[in-house]
Amino acid sequence: xxxxxxxxxxxxGESFGxxxxxxxxxxxDIVSSANVACGFHxxxxxVMNATFRLAREKxxxxxxxxxxxxxxxxxxxxMPYSPAExxxxxxxxxxxxMAVASYAGHRISYVKTHGALGNLTERDPTVADAVxxxxxxxxxxxxxxxxxxxxxxxxxxxxxxxxFSEIFADRAYTEDGHLVSRKEAGAVLHDADxxxxxxxxxxxxxxxxxxxxxxxxxxxxxxxxxGDNPTSVAVAxxxxxxxxxxxxxxxALT
Amino acid sequence: xxxxxxxxxxxxGESFGxxxxxxxxxxxDIVSSANVACGFHxxxxxVMNATFRLAREKxxxxxxxxxxxxxxxxxxxxMPYSPAExxxxxxxxxxxxMAVASYAGHRISYVKTHGALGNLTERDPTVADAVxxxxxxxxxxxxxxxxxxxxxxxxxxxxxxxxFSEIFADRAYTEDGHLVSRKEAGAVLHDADxxxxxxxxxxxxxxxxxxxxxxxxxxxxxxxxxGDNPTSVAVAxxxxxxxxxxxxxxxALT
Amino acid sequence: xxxxxxxxxxxxGESFGxxxxxxxxxxxDIVSSANVACGFHxxxxxVMNATFRLAREKxxxxxxxxxxxxxxxxxxxxMPYSPAExxxxxxxxxxxxMAVASYAGHRISYVKTHGALGNLTERDPTVADAVxxxxxxxxxxxxxxxxxxxxxxxxxxxxxxxxFSEIFADRAYTEDGHLVSRKEAGAVLHDADxxxxxxxxxxxxxxxxxxxxxxxxxxxxxxxxxGDNPTSVAVAxxxxxxxxxxxxxxxALT
Amino acid sequence: xxxxxxxxxxxxGESFGxxxxxxxxxxxDIVSSANVACGFHxxxxxVMNATFRLAREKxxxxxxxxxxxxxxxxxxxxMPYSPAExxxxxxxxxxxxMAVASYAGHRISYVKTHGALGNLTERDPTVADAVxxxxxxxxxxxxxxxxxxxxxxxxxxxxxxxxFSEIFADRAYTEDGHLVSRKEAGAVLHDADxxxxxxxxxxxxxxxxxxxxxxxxxxxxxxxxxGDNPTSVAVAxxxxxxxxxxxxxxxALT
Lengths: 254, 254, 254, 254
Hints:
The structure is a homotetramer of 254-residue chains.
Chain A: E1 5-12, H1 24-27, E2 33-37, H2 45-57, E3 61-65, H3 83-103, E4 108-111, H4 115-123, H5 125-138, E5 144-147, H6 151-158, E6 163-168, H7 192-205, E7 207-209, E8 215-217, E9 222-225, H8 230-245, E10 249-250
Parallel strand pairs in A: 1-2, 1-9, 1-10, 2-3, 3-4, 5-6, 6-9
Antiparallel strand pairs in A: 7-8
Helix pairs in contact in A: 2-3, 3-5, 4-5, 5-6, 7-8
């Protein structure tokens, strides 16, 4: 099921006080959706407000991007929180993001979990369940962005939650459609041309392209790009341009 | 303007992880409204959830109780945040509280600022303005609980915000109706009988009773009691009983 | 190898700002050594200073008590830090404690790891190694307090570190001399008389007494008691009195 | 009193987890002394360790650089801590830095306060006194780096503390030898040539050069340069080269 429209998303608003990560103004000219950190693994109320305002001005949709409460580890460590604790951590951050977005004249369109928490939602059904319960406790109609073929995606759809399925522009896929572990060689695509061309193929085919080149039919609503260093910003721009040139329009999900 | 009904409120949900402050279960049998800390000066997502659930079970209304981001100082230090920063700090915490309350099956009825931030709203109109803007940015219909005769109260009413006017059961009042500074002798009433009798007189008279015994007609919607030590819990219970015996019914504000 | 002298230690200085845990003044009249939290899982520079000063006045020795950087979890969660990170976390906290102790007119006599970090040193040799490297990096002559029969104890002795071997007054022991898991029934001794009598038997015998009553000859330098609630303070006092009545003198380790 | 030797210092080790500030490897090739953040306003045990190791390898001296506990504000906010609290905050951080430096095979040569805390030591004698007491409590022989003509400098010398007097390469001076407020135009010198030439004149003359070009004889032990952005690194390199070309040798203080 190919598509004429696709969403392009990136993790933004991850700066903290005097500490800057990423080139958010540049990325907000590239993506159609911004996943905004909520102050636990990155971000702070000032950064959140500034990011929401700039996104609104540029017509970019915003999602709440909750993570583990681990500023030191930037949310990349698997922290020892129980599923019940994760429910509350997610609800808290989603609410904070909804409030600051509203204050900034914007609104949260979806929730995407960050870093180690996001990775757990792919492979651990109890964490996927916890995230869904945390979000539903705040607003059952709020969509969730999930890694394609993850537990979060299937469990969310089972429950009638609106799920946006996400693939990654710069990550290799195994033959069963999962992300190749970063510990393996070739896990990350570094060539912008290759990455962009593969994204166009995947969106056109409505399929994940594995390392071997096989195509696994998969629902694809959004493509994740990165913006934390100059190279990744260039890749993201390249992906956007390639999609546009292929006649695929960038559009936020609703 | 005397009243047959009055609200009784206390700061609750101020524990943090293994650190417990106050006897929340006891206080939730006494008050009609609980001001619940939002994780910046006290409280955490687990404590917030537990407090909201218990309040709901006991039929106690809940308010968001934002403070300065100062766990070490328990929100009692005047932190150097600009009015614009205070707007965002308040919006963030109010949203987090709304979300966790919703998750817990309850809902936030009002916002009351904590500690040093609350004190600033009494005497500093720029802080009062910032708090109102932070709350309005989240939900313009959300009521604000304000110290009687404070800048927050007058500014809020001017703007059409629903303001609940609050007096303190255990604090002495100056001749112009403000709180006697804690640095002065007699600022805090320690005798439970005296405090309870004075509260009944004030509610009946619709007036603040000053140190000299003068009565200043003042709108009184709610009475603040404390619950952070066994003595204060006893005073709170005494105040509740005295009001009930005087035919004044405790009722949360709406 | 029975002893005429024994050390009695407890975790103290675990309060944080307005949050109080334990009755430190009472405990400092009972123990001969205080393990003082260093600000990562509990404690803060004010609490550390006050605890060191009071300990000095009462003639109680003090140890640095580093834990995981997890105030919310009070150091009881196994946090995902690598051995190399643990080395630095330990060094940092030990140095902070040495400095504040010096400022307070006291001096750090030993290091004892807290909570989840302490438990890992019993069973995980890589963590035991990391703790030893962290301490040695600061001061190779600084003694380490270790759970009797732990990896930390054996590894420390192998390396020529002064190790103080510790048993617990209120914990049951397996037949091979390890702590019975708290998940099992009977893991914690709640009867003060039983606990005190068992401590006297163990110190006299120079042996750990297992659940079955077997005695495993074990070096015992110090006994850990708790002070975080009124019951545990009573148990601690009971243990102290029983030891004294048995002719065993309490004395800090040197 | 001109000099053939001078120290060049910069604030380094201010990164935190995934958040990087400054180009520390480049700066450690320029300066002779590095003021290393201690984890309260910036830095963490990993960053401290890495910075101390790299400084040792490059032969750069290191100082403890304590600041207010305000990671969000990067230590630039004047936080409401009492002088007594500042004593403990300073002692804690100095000890942590000493320990991690030792662990990394280096040693702390001096203490320099950061940001808002540093600015207070210039103009507020009670804060200068608190900093001196905090340092002396840890090690009375530890030198203090102080802004030339500050209260910290004069009070430290009065007490027999070794004080290193510091001027700033890129800051304008008032006619009485104090830093021009950043709120005034011309407070910061942006031209690298001008800054470097002025530094050489000041070191040769043993005098501060004011905005009007007047020379105020002043003890100058060290020159502060910055490294938090590419421009400031270029200025720092320029200052170093100009000094070297003028026959003034860079040398850490002892």
